[in-house]
Amino acid sequence: MSLVQDEVLKDSLKNFSDPGPVYDCVVFHDGNVWRAVVDAKENGDLRDAPVLTDYKTERQYATFSNQDKCNYSVNIYDDGNMLCIVVIAGSHGTHVAAITAANHPDEPALNGVAPGAQIVSIKIGDSRLGSIETHHALTRAVKVIIDDKCDLANMSYGEAASYPNIGRFVELIREEAVGRHGCIFVSSAGNAGPALSTVGAPGGTSAGMVGVGAHQSQAMQQAEYALFESVPERPYTWSSRGPTLDGDVGVSIYAPGAAITSIPEYELSKFQRMNGTSMSSPNACGCISLILSGLKGENKAYTPYRVHRALVNTSKDIQDQFRVGFLQVEKSFDHLLTYHSYEEQDVDYVVQIVERENARGIYLREWEECSKAHTLTVKVEPKFMKDVDYNKPDINEKKLAFECRMALIATESWIRVPEFLFMNGAQRQFEVKVDPTQLTAGLVHFAEIQAFDSSCPARGPVFSIYVTVAKPVELTTHSFIKFDNLQFGPGHIERRLIHVPAGATHAEVVVRSSSGVNVAQSAAKFVVYSTQLIPHLRNDYTKQGYMFRLGKGSYAEAGAEEQSEVKRFSVYSSHTMELCLAQYWDSPGAHSVTVELTFHGLQLSGATTGLRTVFINGADHITRFHVSAPIRREEGLSPSVSLDILRKMVRPSESVIKPLVRDRDSLPNSRLMYNLISTYPFKVEPSGKESVSVSPRFPSLNNLLYDSPHEVLIIVSDVNNKVVGYGDVYIKKFKLPKGDYNLRLQLRHENEELLEKYRHLPCVFDFSLTKAQTLEVSGHWPDALAGKKHPFPTVLERGDIKPAFVISSSDHPKGAKPGDLLVGEWKWGIPKPDGPALSRIIYAIPPEQIPIKEDTVELEEEIDVARQLAEQVRDAQVAWLKKSGSAYKTEKDKEAAAVARKELIAQIEAAGHGKHLPFMLAQLDVALALAESADEATKEEKWKEVLAVSDKIAGAIDQAALAQFFGLKQVTLHGKAEAEQKKVKKEKEEARSALIAALKARCLALVALKENSDEAYNHLSQWSEGTGVTDWKSVGVYLERERKQGRLGLALQRVNSWLNEQGGGTREGASNIKSAIAARRELLHELGWSVWEEYELRWDGIRLPKGPATF
Description:
With 1111 residues, this protein is of the alpha+beta class.
């Protein structure tokens, strides 16, 4: 083995990337159903391979291998044109299912809550996105729930949402799965607690669902956590809390939030402990399964509304702040049996508070609304179960027959309600008065307006209106507030609501623990959260959370010094902030904590374009801002503007709307769905050897999952359709090398007209810059104009307003065009607070600079009008000739072009332009195009024509004179001599370019004709350096030369080098990349490196797929 081959092998090992399993699959119809075979052994022998069909048809599955122990099943769609191989995306789903219904007949102690329940597995986690749920999967899941007539559905998934109780999936579940087909939908409330309003969608934010929080008991502490000291039973610290943004309670019930149970075999472990509301939800689902089993055994009909109300009304009081109880199976079952005759239980009630944008509850949180009494109009409308038959509108009969006399009770004295309410099948409304003015500021106050059936109040409330007042305290100083000696134990939570002063942009919280100053203490985990609710903004965008340990190390010793933790974070002025501090549920011991909160404000006034975002027009040269400190004295300022993102806006190059395949994608009742697929071409500019982070964005669609009316998925691929990444509604960074790429957006909806409005939707591409561009901030306009340094003041007194001047730059990143934007932030020179930037900057790139024409002497030549006209006609003819070899596709057009070309060449030569270099180069381009597309019968003839034309060009150029010209140093001249010198230089450079093109073509022709090309290649190398790196055709010549000499290692090294230089490839060079990959595989075969040849073959299906990836 040569040294070069050794180097190639080392580089191959260094760049090795496992393509993963690559399986051949065969799909066929056996006369009854479609079936599939997967070559899981990857040996081409299918004789022993399992033959599978849709899982729901025969419930068959297979295992890829005993080594990976990964099971799979299949679904076949679109008359056998689409095979879907289904594998799990993680162990989470198996664990959840086992909590509900694991069945171990030989070891019943390992059983789930309802071991007799039948499980329908619906995968909503997309493995391409790291198991996150997608719109597509959620919609398909609803269809499966309905088609398979599921009694219950558990969903241990969820995300934050900007809008509660709306969105495509939420409405499909509420109106179809629950409201029409009677499925009881149970879902996790989220793990984002303990702050207020942290419940996630869909479980904690949506009507019609049983939202489940996570609770821990002393039995769990011992069996699952092995705690050495018992702690109080209560909800987990991290379990999300209500209320929802529209005032509903958020959590329906609590259930055990941890379990040790089954996980997939590929984990090489039978059981694992997991905790979260993902575990409490299937526990509750299993409990409800027991209740339903008992009702079916007693032949008692039920509806989701009836069961939900029984669960809530019989739950155990656990002293929860929002009166949410712990699920009780027997009491719920007894309740359902005892009151089964009351048909009113099969009605749900839709509550709307008119003055609160039709919210489901009353949630007062901001300063103004907590400082006055409110008279509010409540609308209540009964909601009846729809008939499963879509053509049977029998709800009107139910409405006509419905009557219920209700008694209304407020649980707190600061709420006044009417005494009675008569409900019939229509909407009713009444007024309530909520007076928070006398409530203690800084704390949370909760109450209910409960409606009881006056004929049977023992059943419990038939509906409740939840009232939450998170009343903020106003600062008595401009910027500071302190909470002394807060007492904590395991799981204890302290909330303080603070009115953030106007002008505040960030805050500093100091948590001081003095528990160990006098006596020894045990260390304890604490969490502190800052949350604010901004309209139409997800709660996780305004939340900052921290975990730390108090009493760590020597701080726990008696007589130790005071321990303090300092955190800085962004805030939004004039909005109520909750400061939530909690000792973690499993941390024993008592702790005394003091909290100090200081607000700061640095405001930037200018042309705003959004929340905390200001605009700079780069064409303005100098942009004026006003900087103020409205809260307190601010020190250590040293402002600058740092722009680290290049933003481009791209319209789709193609946009197509088509109906989706019904057997894979349709709505309940088989309603047809459409999908819009838009293609966005974009380019990643080279950035040294580094890849560039690219973040595609669709601002109107991003960050809306459960609360979105649309379904969104994106695929990013290179010029050969190799997928480089998938995305959904969440903004994602793709690390991409230089090259051309396509982003395809799929938008789905049943309304074709709605999709039509999105056909020209722009995509925003954010490219991270390797080096941020910095703009200078001056404190003095005249000095900024004069180019003198004048720093902005380092100190602002409270109330100061100072001007700041940002100086635009004439240098912009590579690839930036006029109209593009640079995005970054205004840096203040102080420690950066956590959370959103205090001030974002958007900078518009101005028009490009036009080179200023220098005073030069032009050669005076007498104009010959007739000659000038003849040359322009000739140039137009040459332009057509140059493209004529590849511009025509049909045989008829090609034949006509050949005749016209022959006549044109004769005409140009007859006019005396036969040795005009552009004319000869055009002939060369035509000859090359025809030779490269020629069939076997004419290939030799066409390549000989290339040889003839290339020799003609080379012969027309005085190569000796050309070499002499470029070999001599040119003396700088002036005046007419300089103009003459420039003219000569231009002509010589054109001649050299023509010679290089001719010599390259000669090399290619000789290789194609299988003649010796060494001499021609050496001749080319004298005129062109690096011919084998950037030009694939030249690389091909080099490869043939090295192959003939037996230097296969050098040939392979050159191919690898060329491919590495291409990055993602260009649109024009896509076919060359395919050729290079094929050449590499051939060289590996010739070297006998079968392992690496097989490696390349496995990658081929990924690098060079036959078409775009399927959504």
